[in-house]
Amino acid sequence: MLKILHIAPQNYAGVPYDFYQMHNKCGDYSRIITLHKNPLDFPEDICLNLPIPQFSLAKKWRTKKMSDIEKDGTTNAKYFQPKNILEILYFRCIDFSRKDKIEEVIEKYELDKFDIIHFDSGLDFYRNASQALKWKKLGKKIVCCYYGSDLRIRGIIKELDDISDLNITSEYDHLAMKSDLEYLFYPYDSSELPELNNQENEIVTIVHSPTNRKYKGTELIVNVIEKIKKERKINFILLENEKRSKVLEEKSKCNICIDQVGGRMGGTGYGKAGIETLAMGIPTVTNMTKEYSDWLPENPFVVANNESELYDKLIELIDNKELRIQIGKSGKAWTEKYHGFENVNKNLKELYKNNNII
After folding, report:
1. Cα–Cα distance between 247 and 14 in angstroms, integer?
2. Of all helices (H) and strands (E), which one includes residue 209?
3. I need a surface site. Which of 59, 185, 215, 351 has the fewest CB within 10 A?
4. In terms of domains, do 273 and 330 share one?
5. Do both 178 and 33 map to the same domain?
6. Rounded Cα–Cα distance for residues 44 and 34 (Å)
7. Pair 216, 176 in one domain
8. Is 301:332 a contact under the CB 8 Å cutoff?
9. What is the DSSP letter of 158?
């Protein structure tokens, strides 16, 4: 039995927690430490509940970093570098302020006894990766798992990357950003989902649940929906900043889901929201490059990359109930085949073996 520790800044969309659940359900022992609480009520194991700076200067700083990346346009991940002395001092102060709490947690939960340490989002407790370096000297195996904006916006933490035994991602576009990344499907257990409850809908209901409007292309999606409302009788549900239980319940009542189309900085493809609706048996629309669409095995998604394609695909789904049922059934089976715990765990263990982790 392996002892696998996950450290994540936050339980993003519940994905780090799904890895933790997968390890435990497949016969290993795992814990997950999150630094910050997820505001949308995703489950936690051990949460340090550290504050996320919300003062105006911090928000402006994050916005500027995203803007700089957009202007750059490069597809290669860069090493994280503080921009100036203020950033250097800021991270040193943050690391110092959390040191006592982190050391207390390490002792309380006997974290030094774990065999494999997953740094979800490629981030240590400390920005300089000092705890990871200590564990590496103790003979621990280090795994970095990248989820999205970590590579696109923040970049790679060099000190952690230098000691990592394995780097994995579940984002297709990451593969072109960092040459040593291994692709692994997100693990997902569909038993958490409510029963599909859309059979009695007299009017086709479409749902979109962005965590970030800019990333998901929400403005474009709403424009297309408003155009379709003039031609077809539909319901549209926009779910934002809602508790997870409500989001899942509302999704279960819908006939079509739009994950993302034309967003910026969010990559292409799908995330946790897309997996959830596929697993419910709901046709799910998202954007994908042709290379990604061709690469994804038995691609179950309805692909739309711009406003015109989204309009055409939605009209086709709205007008054809049998097509919706057919796509929904195949999507549900696909999710279990590629994202089910057993299959993902098997593939992860192969990556462990290939990289001398086990």
Report:
1. 13
2. none
3. 59
4. yes
5. yes
6. 8
7. no
8. no
9. H
CB within 8 Å of 330: residues ≥ 6 apart: 300
For residue 106, give every residue at least 6 positions away whose Cβ sits within 8 Å of its Cβ, in sequence order, or none: 112, 131
Q: Which of 152-156, 169-173, 328-332 has the highest mean pLDDT?
A: 328-332
Q: Mark whether 183 and 97 lie in a shared domain.
A: yes
Whether 314 shows a pLDDT value over 80: the answer reads: yes
Residue numbers of the domain that contains 176: 3-189+340-354
Same domain, 44 and 105: yes
Distance CA 145, CA 134 (A): 19
Question: In this predicted model, what pLDDT tens digit does every residue of 6-56 receive, in sequence order?
Answer: 999 999 888 999 999 999 999 999 999 999 998 877 889 999 999 876 556
Between CA 86 and CA 318 the distance in angstroms is 53
For the stretch 292-308, pLDDT in tens is 999 999 999 999 999 99
Compute φ and ψ for 330, nearest 5 degrees. -70, -35
State both tokens at 76.
């290669």
Six token digits for residue 154: 């923040």
| Position 66 pLDDT exceeds 70 | no
- Angle of CA points 125, 127, 130, to nearest 5°: 65
pLDDT at 138: 96
Same-domain pairing of 318 and 204: yes
CATH number at residue 283: 3.40.50.2000
Strand ranges in the chain using DSSP code E only, listed in sequence order:
3-8, 29-34, 46-47, 116-120, 141-146, 166-169, 181-183, 204-208, 234-238, 256-260, 284-286, 302-303
CA separation (Å) from 225 to 45, 200, 232, 235, 260?
39, 22, 10, 9, 13
The maximal CA–CA distance of the chain, rounded, in angstroms, is 65
- Say how many domains are in the chain: 2
How far apart CA 312 and CA 224 sit, in angstroms, is: 10
Compute CA distances 93 → 43, 65, 87, 156, 314, whole Å.
29, 20, 10, 21, 50
Instruction: Output the six-digit token pair for 97.
Output: 């302020």
